[in-house]
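Handout, page 2. Input:
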Amino acid sequence: MIETNKIYQGDALEVLKTFTDESINCVMTSPPYWALRDYGNEKQLGLEKTFDEYINKLCDIFDEVKRVLRKDGTCWVNIGDTYNSHSTGKGEVGGIEGKRKNKGDNKANTKKQFNLIPDKCLVMIPFRFAIEMVNRGWILRNTIIWYKPNCMPSSVKDRFTTDFEYLFFFVKSKKYYFETQYEPIAEISMKDKRKDKGRFEYNGKRRKFKEVTLSKVPYAIQPRDKEFALVPQSEMMGINSYGRNKRAVWRITTKPFKESHFAVFPEELCETPLKAGCPENGIVLDPFMGSGTTGLSALKQNKRFIGIELNPEYIKIAEARIKPYLSQTKLNKEAVSIPPNPKGIGYP
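Output:
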């Protein structure tokens, strides 16, 4: 039986093959990025000879994720990019050479594929991944921008500092579980001199407007051109007191992590996907568990988790973080397990 609230050690693809079809409610994960870091394990993802090999290997794992995900399930993937830079310069993140320990023809093949892309150019890993996922039958619902206001400074002088990453929101069916998330509506200052002149609302005919009576309700932030003038948000969209539908740019600061793990995403990045895409008591899967942030967030929302992690040292870190919450959550008192895949390892 596959136990919940547990991290399984092993290769993500092989472990997933032991899981039962359509047994997971939600997936939240961040796979190792390509050509950025060597985690010191022969089976690790991210040090493939070419980015095509990386994308195919990663999407093979998500083929299994799709199989174990319920028809009404959701899948959230945070993934970053890298630059084509054979000899990584100051401030430049990218370039597989110097990142891997393998030599010989492997290195030559890497050079060959990098030569297909101009030097200093983004490899566009997130876009290649998203396109291949859609080609394999996934439905891409959102491309979310994780904006990092406290991003690491860069010393590079010939481009802008990158202060965001992508979070892709996939589903496998047109109908899926989703709880709408809201955010506050910005209010326009009552001192705004334009309020004295009233508001204008587009009435369906180009550049013809009708005046709208001022009220003390929140106003939507719209371009200040007269054709798109500010109008009461409640009149324009018919929203409720919860606020407006959450936007796709999320301002989330990175958090320091004292343990020996290089790539820890903040809990806040997990919170909204799990609130929106997983029901209470549901099961959240992270096939690249790392330091255990997904499991921690799931428990705090009264949801179960299953983690998969290749590195046993990271499992120890994750279990230490999660243990205090396991003893507090009521889910720990309810033994829940998933029947194993009857076809077991090697299921096509």
